[in-house]
Amino acid sequence: MSVFWAVFLKRMDAVSKSSQKETIEFKATVDLLKSPSDFLTSQRDLFDEYEKKANEQVEAQYSDDCSLLRKRKRHHADADAEQVVVLGKEKFRIETYLPILDTLSAELNRHVQAYDRIQSLFGFLVEFSSKTDDELQHATETFRENYPDDVDVDFQEEMVHFKYFASQLKDSDDTIPASQSYALISDNMVQSTFPNVLTALRIYKCLMITNGTGEPTFS
pTM to 2 decimals? Predict the structure, then answer.
C-alpha cells in the first residue's frame, strides 16, 4: 500500500497547493477538489501494477499464501454450495485495497459537498454570459435571499444589464473569471452603474477554500 499512498498523497499535495493560490477561481478550485475522487476510481483496476512496483522495491509474500485451509464443519441445514475461501493477493485486494479507495472517495465527496452548495449560489457570477435572462434573475434572487443586507432589489435587472455590458467589451465565453468581471467594472469606472454586481463579486472573491475538516459553514 505504500506505493499507492505515495502516488495518492503526491496528487493530493498538488491539489492542495493549487487550491491555496490567491489567483485561482473558486469554481476551478471546486472542480479541482472533485478530481481526486475520480482519480481514485481510475485506480481500482491498477492493483496489479502497484503490487508489481512494490515487489521491485522489496520482495514480499502474503502472510497467508502458505496457510493451511481448515475445513468448516458442515451441518445438516447447510446448502450444497461450495465454500469460497479467498487468500493472499486477492484477499488483500478485496479486504484492504478496495475498501481504502472507497473510504477515501466517500470522504472526499463529503468534503466537497459544502463547496458544491456555495458554487451553486455564486456560480452565476462567472457563468452569466451563458445564462438566459430568466436564469440570471432566478439566480440573483436566490443570492439576495441569502445576502439581504448586501444587495438590494435592483440586483436582478442589474446583473442582466451587466451581462450585455460585458459582452460588448470581450468575447463571449461560457465562463468569465470573477477577477475579469471586477476589472471590467473598475477599469471602465462604472461602479455606480453596477454596485450590487460589484458587491457580489467582492463576496465571491473573499471565499476561502480549506482542506481541513473543520471548515466554517456558509450561509
Answer: 0.61
